[in-house]
């Protein structure tokens, strides 16, 4: 029987099917996805510009400067947040969704801050606003931890056990104490003593965290971290003594100068000690 003529296109088709991916169409599909992203990006940017112009034209005179700045920046953050999610293309997928969650949570938190403080902070006291900001920040950090901790444990080459989880729990307990103190015990008229209480509570928490991590740090031979931790304790102790006993006669800016000066001095001492060693 005469043989049918051999068709090279059939071989090419079978080769492409056996590979499981159409190598001929892949570049074009990538280009199409890129073009769609570019189009959506332009639409998002144009939408923010239109919103900003409409707000300034119709509503800006009803609000003060900081409220208008907050609304403008909130719209900008939302726009760039969605653009970042749109263009994030990280493999594998277990990393991609974590990046998307991180971007989304960060975007929503920044927007909430930009809306809360210009529009609603004047209805409450200073300590209440600080507590709200700190509580929202802690919630965001917890979401980050839940999102990334499992991946970090899988990727980490050195086993650190449950130390990260213990550190997170101690940080949350300290944050709850700070929020409680601000809402129910603190007095803005004596903020120096409240600062001393906050610093002392931080020192106590850091002691427990150090007890958790120092044995592991010693086992790894990373003694520089221990010296840095000791310098941090020295700096916090100086600040506790200052705010607890000496800060009252001075204003806020003078006390801030003391914080900066003591930090620079401690940092300079660390640099000198490291160079000598």
Pick out the low-confidence regions: 12-25
Shape: globular
Helix content: over 70%
Beta content:
under 5%
How many helical stretches?
9
| Major sheet attributes | none
Q: How many E strands?
A: 0
Distance N terminus to C terminus?
91 Å
Mean pLDDT: 86
Question: Nearest-angstrom radius of gyration?
Answer: 28 Å
The arrangement of helices and strands along the chain is: HHHHHHHHH
From the helix content, strand content and strand pairing, which structural class follows? mainly alpha
Task: Walk me through the structure.
Helix content is 82%, strand content 0%. By secondary structure, the protein is an all-alpha fold. Among the domains are: 99 residues; 91 residues, no CATH class. α4 runs antiparallel to α5. The protein is globular, with a radius of gyration of 28 Å. About 5% of the residues have low confidence.
Can I get a quick summary?
This protein has 277 residues and is mainly α.
Please write out the topology.
Elements: H1 8-19, H2 26-58, H3 65-87, H4 93-119, H5 126-155, H6 163-185, H7 191-220, H8 223-246, H9 252-276
Helix pairs in contact: 2-3, 3-4, 4-5, 5-6, 6-7, 7-8, 8-9
Structure characteristics:
mainly alpha; 82% helix; 277 residues; 9 helices
């Amino acid at each position: 029987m005469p043989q049918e003529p051999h068709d090279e296109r059939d071989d090419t088709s079978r080769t492409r099917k056996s590979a499981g991916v159409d190598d001929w169409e892949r570049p074009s599909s990538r280009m199409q996805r890129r073009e769609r992203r570019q189009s959506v990006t332009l639409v998002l940017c144009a939408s923010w510009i239109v919103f900003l112009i409409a707000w300034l034209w119709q509503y800006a005179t009803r609000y003060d400067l900081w409220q208008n700045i907050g609304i403008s920046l909130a719209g900008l953050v939302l726009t760039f947040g969605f653009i970042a999610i749109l263009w994030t293309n990280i493999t594998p997928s277990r990393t991609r969704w974590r990046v998307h969650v991180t971007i989304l949570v960060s975007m929503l938190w920044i927007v909430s801050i930009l809306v809360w403080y210009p529009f609603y902070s004047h209805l409450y006291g200073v300590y209440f606003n600080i507590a709200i900001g700190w509580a929202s920040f802690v919630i965001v950090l917890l979401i980050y931890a839940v999102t990334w901790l499992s991946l970090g444990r899988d990727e980490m080459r050195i086993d650190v056990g449950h130390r990260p989880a213990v550190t997170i729990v101690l940080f949350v307990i300290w944050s709850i104490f700070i929020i409680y103190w601000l809402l129910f015990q603190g007095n803005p008229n004596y903020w120096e003593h409240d600062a001393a209480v906050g610093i002392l509570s931080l020192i106590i928490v850091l002691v427990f965290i150090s007890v958790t991590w120092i044995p592991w740090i010693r086992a790894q031979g990373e003694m520089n971290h221990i010296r840095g931790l000791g310098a941090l304790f020295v700096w916090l102790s100086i600040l506790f003594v200052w705010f607890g006993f000496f800060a009252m006669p001075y204003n806020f800016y003078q006390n801030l100068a003391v914080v900066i000066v003591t930090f620079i001095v401690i940092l300079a001492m660390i640099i000198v000690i490291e160079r000598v060693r």
